[in-house]
Design brief:
The chain is of the alpha+beta class. The chain has 4 helices and 12 strands.
């Protein structure tokens, strides 16, 4: 029994100690556990009729926020939040709370809205090979299809060479695809030109060129006759 009474007395002392020293969270000093029994308040709160009331720092000089941001009151403190990108200075969130519109935005009604530079400017992009793309508060010039940017200028993209169907094979010479009858025509044209030149010189009475001309005519005639003879013989043997 004595031990039981001592334990109960210890619990009672602990409860009394908690009641004496515990205060609401917003109070730094109090006379009781109730919120209207505060004697001193924590930082960010002010005492009013024994009750700690939140201080609105945004309505006082305490809530000093940097440029292009606005103040938001919180319990016992405040926050600074960035203005909308359309604003230069603001009184709250969104493009309708701007003090002034940022560059690239214009006041339309009560809001600062983006300017479409690609439609408002005749030549937003100076090069004919560029395409204007509107962005928030600005625009950019992209190279048109088939062009790439090189040294700030859009130049035509070089197309890769298509592989030849006979890639790797040795390239054919100039006269490799010529037909036999085409060779014969070229030979006759060549001999004709030579004969004309020799005939012109022979007319002048030069014996040397006259001899050469006659020899060339004889050679041409012999070649023609031998070639025709070979063909006739060949056709005869084949039964044509």
């Amino acid at each position: 029994m004595p031990h039981s009474n001592l334990l109960q007395a210890a619990w009672m002392c602990c409860l009394l100690a908690l009641q004496v020293h515990s205060c609401p969270d917003i109070c730094s000093k109090c006379s009781g556990l109730k919120s209207d029994q505060c004697e001193e308040c924590r930082t960010g709160w002010t005492l009013h009729n024994n009750t700690c009331v939140d201080i609105d720092e945004c309505g006082t000089e305490l809530g000093i926020c940097p440029a292009n941001s606005y103040c938001v009151n919180t319990k016992g403190s405040y926050e600074c939040r960035d203005c909308d990108p359309a604003c230069v200075g603001c009184m709250g969130s969104g493009p309708a709370r701007c003090r002034k519109c940022a560059s690239g935005f214009t006041l339309t009604g009560s809001k600062c809205l983006d300017i479409d530079e690609c439609s408002d400017r005749v030549l937003a992009c100076h090069s004919l090979n560029e395409i204007c793309t509107n962005t928030e508060g600005s625009f950019r010039c992209d190279c048109a299809e088939g062009f790439i940017r090189r040294d700030s200028v859009c130049v035509k993209r070089q197309q890769p060479l298509c592989p030849s169907p006979h890639a790797g094979a040795q390239e054919k010479g100039l006269f490799e695809d010529i037909q036999d009858d085409e060779v014969e025509v070229l030979q006759q044209m060549f001999f004709g030109v030579v004969l004309c030149a020799l005939a012109t010189l022979a007319v002048k009475g030069d014996l040397v060129y006259t001899s050469i001309f006659m020899g060339a005519v004889a050679a041409m005639a012999g070649y023609w006759l031998s070639d025709r003879g070979d063909r006739l013989l060949d056709n005869f043997l084949k039964g044509r």
